[in-house]
Write the structure tokens for this entry.
Amino acid sequence: MTPSPNSRDSAWVLEATIRTAPAADPHWQEQLDRLRPIATYDRETQTWHARLGALDLAGVQLLQTLFDAAHIHGTEVRLAPVAVPAYWNGPTFARDSEVASLLEAQADPGRPLGQLPLA
């Protein structure tokens, strides 16, 4: 579903902010190889960013890649619902969806919402 201009006020996307974990080659390169296909790098903040607007196959694959990076490399991943960026042409979540309610609930006491726990 591509959002119409009027629906942008009641829609949001899930933004992943990713900080790579320090590692020696080849683990460093392996970590970057996982992130490059799904995220963009921001040199100013030295973080990677990915956005998700639906829990479809592509969305689940993106989340699985982030979970794998966190589990294998110790990559820090934080998820947060954000307003739909002006350039976004992909699907969006509706404010009244069950997913929005879930994201607004506290995940674990003492752990920021959207922060993936390290195994």
Q: What stands out?
A: The longest strand covers residues 11-19.
